[in-house]
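hi support,

uploading two proteins for the ticket. first:
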Amino acid sequence: MRRNLSILTLGLLLVALTGCKKQENFYDIPNVAISHYVYLSNPTNFNLQVQGGWVYDDAIGAGYKGLIIYRRYMNFDANDFVAYERACPIHYASDCGQMKVKDDFSIVCECDDKEYALFDGSPYQDNPSPSVKFYRTTFDGGNTIHIVN
């Protein structure tokens, strides 16, 4: 009886150890120091002058693989901006691991075509991935967005 219990315990331990696989997530995306300014008067950023507008920002110091900056309209605040990391939450280290805006509602990881809501970075229901990493933004009410982490 004791031998059977030992064999059973050993078997369960082996199954548990071989079944564990570390899943990468956005907490694994390398942390880079960000203090980045975006100016609405810059012609490349004109899309940010209206709600629902977005731009890519791949400048040096703008995230790990760049940023997606989106002007949303949350809680009746016309000056609400969000800055998402362009690195995919799971495939951030891959060559294909960069997010692209698919349409006015979603962004997609190029590696696995997993989609996320453009409004808040959350994964769609059929996507078990973690949310897209985002950075804190402040807007001066006129021309300048400051993005920091």
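and the second one:
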Amino acid sequence: MPNLLQGTLDLLILNALAPGAMHGLGISRRIEQVTQGTFLVKPGSLFPALHRMEEAGWLASSWGESDNNRKAKFYRLTPPGRRQLKSETTEWRRISIAIAAALQA
């Protein structure tokens, strides 16, 4: 995964979970899909972020079965997580507009 601004992984995870609960591999695949392969999130980055976000109250988790009938931990956004997604999306848009303007200067 390319070096990113602090918090970008959080935004990608929150956005991946916006449609509904997913297990870790599903989140990783969704991020890869929506970024057209630009971001490949490895377990060593994903799972510490998921645990940190769960501790922050942005995510809740429960155990269930994956598509291949294996036990998996599923994560979902909490109401504070939805607010965080909205806040981080607004901030990212502001930053990306500023960077685009700087690159055209």
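thanks. also noticed: The two ends are 28 Å apart (CA to CA).
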